[in-house]
């Protein structure tokens, strides 16, 4: 569609690239700010092709622990050696991933961890406030549950052993409770009595169907005037150095006044066209769903020892985890999903067998665990909103709000300095 065909709104038209949780959140907040909105994506919002479909559903205002923490290097060999462990790097892919991995390790410096943690908290603390108005208007309040989050350990000392992480959370005002074996059973009787200690974060939340949430937010945006186009953006169209449109794969040009790049793990191919080389990898993650499995689990529970998540979902039990470096094109290795189910079974008192489905998605990963929310270096009418890694569901609505503030030329409600594109 050409610009002349688009009805112009008072604030102008914004074209959003990507309709995952980031894209649909941005679209809704842009509409509220008075912009006309087009969203372009070959995938249907909320469908399996999006990372936003298959995540673990954590909506956690208190999420402020980066993936790369002091001492991480000591754990890497153990994780890599274990075929059912949480981390995999395909050997042939290692040369490609190495620069990213070195930056990841560099981010584990304590001084840097302090900065990243503060940045994470600054964005995530507003997650409920930013989702609630959208979810209410979309009529799907059941998709945000506030039941807390439980990190279980198989040893009695486990919960206290992550003292620095606990200290970080407490310093950022996150309520933390340490539970013993009996208290774990009282809180979550569905779990087998094999856990001797736990960290409970009572103020965290969860979404029991993240794909449906994306679909509902896309429906809401459509009702409020956004137009969704099933197409892939191939390139930016520039005139005198300014981006005036995007060219789709079929050659069609769509014009707009501003652009938001929210294409998740695929974003860097497009940001490179604007001269920005941002270190970026797909951190491939897996889930296995046991449809209809009634374990009795109510609270999202993380195996702190084995690094995966058990999430009670609308359709059954989801077990999610793994970080695999293998790029955007290689087919999934569903043995990783099967391994998650195998390891999860002993965690429950009962787990009824149901229809099992497996999924792999591409987390959009920066090496320092925080996204890029900034204007493009050489085109100030293009806003980047990508790289949310393991926390894109948490940060979706907040990102939507701050991007709409940027597009409107207003001061942003969160200081975006830590999320600059040129911080690497
Ligand atoms: C196993 C697992 C568990 C997770 N658990 C959690 C959790 O509990 N809590 C949490 O907050 N996060 C979690 N995450 C991370 C979270 O899912 C992601 O950070 C988030 O979904 C990223 O959203 P997005 O909109 O950036 O990307 P996506 O949802 O992947 O959407 C990007 C969209 O861009 C489109 N696109 C790509 N290229 C183009 C193009 N050229 N033109 C147009 N469109 C394009 C794609 O088709 C896609 O639809 C988890 C991830 C995984 C894998």
Tell me briefly what this model is.
The protein has 424 residues and is of the alpha/beta class.
Describe this structure in words.
The two termini are 37 Å apart. The longest helix has 16 residues, at 392-407. The protein has twelve helices and 20 strands. It is globular, with a radius of gyration of 21 Å. It folds into two domains: 3-51 and 212-278 and 369-419, 3-Layer(bba) Sandwich (FAD/NAD(P)-binding domain), CATH 3.50.50; 69-106 and 144-205 and 280-365, D-Amino Acid Oxidase, Chain A, domain 2 (2-Layer Sandwich), CATH 3.30.9.10. Residues 1-8 have low confidence and may be disordered. Helix content is 30%, strand content 26%. Strands 4, 5, 6, 7, 14, 15, 16, 17 and 18 form a nine-stranded mixed beta sheet that branches. Strands 9-2-1-13-20-19 form a six-stranded mixed beta sheet, with helices on both faces. A three-stranded antiparallel beta sheet has the order 10-11-12, with no helix packed on it. With 424 residues, the protein is of the alpha/beta class. The protein binds flavin-adenine dinucleotide.
Number of DSSP strands? 20
Q: Which regions contain 5 or more consecutive residues with pLDDT less than 50?
A: 1-8
> Please, what is the CATH homologous superfamily of the largest domain?
D-Amino Acid Oxidase, subunit A, domain 2
Secondary structural class: alpha/beta
CATH topology of the largest domain: D-Amino Acid Oxidase, Chain A, domain 2
CATH architecture level-2 label of the largest domain: 2-Layer Sandwich
**Shape estimate:** globular
Largest sheet: 9 strands, mixed
Strand content: 25-35%
CATH class of the largest domain: Alpha Beta
The N- to C-terminal Cα distance equals 37 Å
Helix content: 25-40%
What ligands can be seen in this structure?
flavin-adenine dinucleotide
Radius of gyration: 21 Å
